[in-house]
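Lab notes, practical 5.
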Amino acid sequence: MTNPGFTRPDIAVPVREPAETSPDDAILPFQVAALELRGQVVRLGPMVDEILSRHNYPLPVAKLVGEAIVLTVLLGSTLKFDGRFIFQTQTDGPVRMLVIDLRSPGKVRACARFDAAQVEAAIASGKADPGSLLGRGHLAMTIDQGPDMSRYQGVVALEGGNLEAAAHEYFRRSEQIPTRVRLAVAEEFSPGSTRRWRAGGALLQFLPLASDRARQADLDPGNAPEGTPPHTVAEDEAWVEGRTLMSTVTDLELIDPELSSERLVYRLFHEHGVRVFRYRELRAECSCSRTGVEAMLRSFPQDDRDHMVENGVISVTCEFCSANYAFAPEDVAGEQV
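Output from the prediction step:
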């Protein structure tokens, strides 16, 4: 997640009014050269609804999965590579695990593991906010560019906060890039009581050419003598303005289908001039297949396969897309030794 640089000011850029509409399931990169800011706005409609509708998640869990999808898309789309960006949490809260898998170009799948009784109790007690559902643990973000490249993994602690806070902490500690993230997920009700999920988000980063302008305060070493004043660094005025404008974005603006992504960024940064780039499309797509599941079953010891037989078949359901694959035991028998 490195500084991509800014376009040259001497190159002419067409000027036009922001578009009135924008596509769903797409991410819009933008740039505010005058403030040395870069960002992205993502709008998800059918894609996130398809993923969440495949599972019978309780509403707070579905919303948390939706937020994780938005965050994964925002973070993974800043990287220019062919491969996978994997977002995974492991925590002690009611939602023990979230896994979001973004594969280039723009293919997304997601799933969650949770304790239904604990989630129900959290809802009953009014403590079903994202931070309470996650609890404490860690968030890992893995970049996998294929078998010929080393994996990169960044890890940040989850201390009872939400995913926005976790993203801010990750960039502060690991990337040291001033960053602000906004996430929003909600159900849309249409005539006939049809419910559909929508989601949206925005990411803003301060990437000045002079790297010292992006300096941040040192992390607390934890063993400084008592009374030692914390290290402070004055924030750059351009970043102060950028993050302040970002804080005015509402949840409704992020998911409203009648407000285009271009109009949102224009509302925020028109005084300085904002440049938008081509949309990048996103879609829900799982990588599971009958051939892949069959190969997995064949790799198991015979005793393990024998214990998987129920009513004369071996049945496997994908955690991501809920697709079910059924096999006769003899069809997945391993090679005889």
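Observations recorded by the TA: Residues 1-6 have pLDDT under 50 and may be disordered. The first helix runs from residue 46 to 53.
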